[in-house]
Amino acid sequence: MPTGKNLYFASDFHLGANSYASSREREDRIIRWLDTIRDDVAELFLMGDVFDFWFEYKTVVPKGYIRFLGKLAQLTDAGVKLYLFKGNHDMWMFDYFVQEFGATIITNELEIERGGKKFYLHHGDGLGPGDRFYKFLKKFFRSKVCQWLFARLHPNLGVGIANAWSRQSRIAGANDAEKVQHQQEWLESYSLEVLKNRHFNYFIFGHRHLPLDISLPDNSRYVNLGEWVNYNTYAVFDGVDLKLKWFEASPKPSPKEMA
């Protein structure tokens, strides 16, 4: 990676979630963050659920987010490498961001090495034990048959159905924090399983909506990027170390600390 340049990781913006006003406020906050990192970012990893819903018809994409998309265009035009991960809310990304920004679309995991450190990157959905029903749904929703059928719907109907479905899965940090108090974090469990066969310095995920930085065996760490409704958290790698940070907010106690 270039000297003086960093890797930045963020997840779960959920643009479009809740009201238009709250989504716009969140969009403006994200743009302010992108402005603060533009001089030292080499690669930007947006690791899923950037949008609360996204589907690319052949000639139509969801309206809105123009300021955010414009900022991404500024960054990529300046040479920043952009990676967009498919989350469970925006898994129907196809080639729009590739054509507009030269982005790399990541469907599942991405393994990279930077500064002599190995990274395992994934949105986090469908990993670890249990949740068989969601894993079945994920496989179906990502199938070409499902995508073809959905594309046959008029956008007004298709987006309306998708938004109604999306509202059933809202950010609830307090409930998730309570779960962590009573059971091992499932993405931590998944990371430990991977470590049995292969070593990574960092496992970075989103999806859980909880900012977490957990030490694992063999000098490895599991970092969850949290989300931008309650926490405004992201991670930065400067070529030596990875740090979990808060933007325009004081760090809040992690669920592990509250246990």
UniProtKB/TrEMBL annotation:
Gene Ontology MF terms: hydrolase activity
Gene3D superfamilies reported for this sequence: 3.60.21.10
Alphabetized InterPro entries for the sequence: Calcineurin-like_PHP, LpxH-like, Metallo-depent_PP-like
Domain Calcineurin-like phosphoesterase: 8-210
Keywords: Cell inner membrane, Cell membrane, Hydrolase, Manganese, Membrane, Metal-binding
EC identifiers of the protein: 3.6.1.54
One matching Pfam family: Metallophos
Top-rank taxon: Bacteria
This protein's name: UDP-2,3-diacylglucosamine diphosphatase
Organism: Mucilaginibacter lutimaris
